[in-house]
Structure formats: C-alpha cells, structure tokens
Amino acid sequence: MVYTQHLCAQCGSEPIRRNGTSQGHAEYQCKACGYQARFTPAAVAKAAQYAQVEKLLRRTQLPT
After folding, report:
1. Confidence (pTM)
2. Which residues contact residue 28 at a Cβ distance below 8 angstroms, ignoring those fewer than 6 apart?
3. Which whole-number Å values give the CA distances from 62 to 29, 36, 58, in the listed order?
4. Residue 44 has what pLDDT?
5. Is residue 21 within 8 Å of 27, Cβ to Cβ?
C-alpha cells in the first residue's frame, strides 16, 4: 500500500485539510499558514515506477 503525504508548499507544514474543489480537483488548505492550493501527490506515480524498477532488478539479478 502506498501512502501519500501532503506538505504545504508555502511553509512546509504537515497539518492540511481538504477545502473544496476546483475544476474537479480537490483543494487543500494549510492549517498553519492558511495557504490554499491543489496538492498533487506525485508520490503515487513515483512509487509505482520504483516498484517496477525493483521488480526488474530482482528479475535480472543472478542467484548467488
């Protein structure tokens, strides 16, 4: 299972809450500074790529 963590782009704080939608995408608001934006979790796509690379590396490694 992949977990994503959103951090505020303005202050780097972790406590964020969902605050409506814009053009079909969720918007989030930082509880610390009030900055509001659409946070896109790139971690999900990267995690899938890393998993694929690890799988290929395990397949190509020779048993010792």
Report:
1. 0.52
2. 6, 16, 17, 18, 19, 36, 37, 38, 39
3. 49, 50, 8
4. 63
5. yes
What HEC string does the chain produce? CCCCCCCCCCCCCCCEEEEEEECCEEEEEECCCCCEECCCCHHHHHHHHHHHHHHHHHHHCCCC
Tokens 């790529």, residue?
49
Q: How many percent of the chain have pLDDT more than 70?
A: 77
Distances in Å between the alpha carbon of 47 and those of 6, 19, 20, 38, 60? 15, 26, 27, 20, 20
Which amino acid is residue 47, in one-letter code? A
Confidence of residue 9 (pLDDT cuts 50, 70, 90): confident
